[in-house]
Automatic annotation (TrEMBL):
Cofactor: [2Fe-2S] cluster
Protein name stated in the entry: 2Fe-2S iron-sulfur cluster binding domain-containing protein
SUPFAM superfamilies, A to Z: 2Fe-2S ferredoxin-like
GO MF terms held by the record: 2 iron, 2 sulfur cluster binding; electron transfer activity; metal ion binding
Species, as recorded: Sandarakinorhabdus fusca
Keyword field contains Iron: yes
GO biological process terms, semicolon-separated: P450-containing electron transport chain
Length: 106
């Protein structure tokens, strides 16, 4: 179980528990966190769960694979630390992770 803090573009933070093995997209949706849509259901096919991961955490969250990176190219506001929340699985190692959301998912 990991406590993940999702920070909306306006600075509003939502700190929730996400079970190990559950994607951060699913964790956001099941906990009613606004700003993460997950329109494709977690298949890295829509980029509506675009988030920014602090560089200090990339060793634990990993980096985007080719397919994810291609989808992120279609997202508004892509940065070097952009990820799709559907491609990051919660684990004890991610306890305390803070991710930020872009202004829009579309």
């Amino acid at each position: 179980m990991a406590r993940i803090t999702y920070v909306e573009f306006n600075g509003t933070a939502h700190s929730v528990e996400v079970a190990n093995g559950v994607s951060l997209m699913e964790g956001a949706i099941s906990n009613g966190v606004p700003g993460i849509d997950g329109d494709c259901g977690g298949n890295a096919a829509c980029a509506t769960c675009h988030v920014y991961v602090d560089g200090a955490w990339t060793g634990k969250t990993g980096t985007p694979n080719e397919m994810e990176d291609a989808m992120l190219d279609l997202a508004d506001g892509k940065r070097d630390n952009s990820r799709l929340a559907c491609q990051i699985l919660a684990s004890d190692d991610l306890d305390g992770l803070v991710i930020e959301m872009p202004e829009t998912q579309h």
